[in-house]
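Quick one: examine this chain and its backbone structure tokens and tell me how the chain folds. Here goes:
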Amino acid sequence: MELRVFGRTGMQLSVLGFGCGAVGGLMVRGDAADQERTVAKALAAGVNYFDTAVQYGNGESEKNLGRVLRKLKPANAIVGTKVRLPPNDYGRIAGAVTTSLEGSLSRLGLDHVDIFHLHNAIAETESESALSVKQVLGEVVPVFERLRQQGKTRFLGITAVGDTAALQQVIDSRAFDSAQVVYNMLNPSAAEALPPNYPAQDYGRLFDSTQRAGVGVIGIRVLAGGALSGSAERHPIASPAPEPIGSAMSYDADLDRARRLMPLVKEGFDANLTEAATRFALSHPAMGTILVGIATPQQFDDALAAVEKGPLPNAALDRLSALRQAFSGEPR
């Protein structure tokens, strides 16, 4: 398994991380034996980053990951978790963040995590759906730093969703060591300029900001919540189709555009669309590790096989760019 240096942290993360989220659902609603078997297989393959959050199954993901790691006792597991503040906690950010992390540590059975991410969207001004830049830098960062000084987390992170300008301000502040960034075949704007009138959020080459600031990148929504499988079918333990992040305004629109990328498969660049999407996410040097949601052990095997093929070749990237041109001018 390829390891990449993760920003300025000095950590080396496996290019394939283990997503414990609710979209795939294995670590939330899966069979306990399947959970243990899949984590063990991941560790044996060289996967060393495990990403969870209290929001995933209201703590179930953290409990299950903690149980499995206690049983397997890996020497090199790197664990990240998250806090999302509801609007009624905006007036008591320090206390709410502290309580959240302490609860996460209890469920995980750990005395610290390696990365603690703020999971709220970030905007220029506060709203029910986002924290303001001022709140993040003035209130969240101090309590995160205090928790780091107490040894409860090694590094600080954000989930980079919200307003692009606000995200760039927060990353440029260098207050955080990690950013979870939306990057997939439907929306590559964290890395490159979008075509005119393209139907997606423009993340304004956010990778330029992360690289300047030495911030490690965790790739999220690599499969656009499953749309980049090209199939509407969802496994029984997976979540219902999630709301898109950064791409179309509806999952069905994402799915439709994903299917229009099928020439990548028909022309022999990849075995299937999921494999292409997984390999695409590895293709930028700013990427530290990617998270692929999984519902079954087989889906982990598929992700591992895709990663072992390495990044997409330039010819495939060029073909993909040409296919995306057709999306310009369509409603988001």
Notes: The chain has a mean pLDDT of 96.
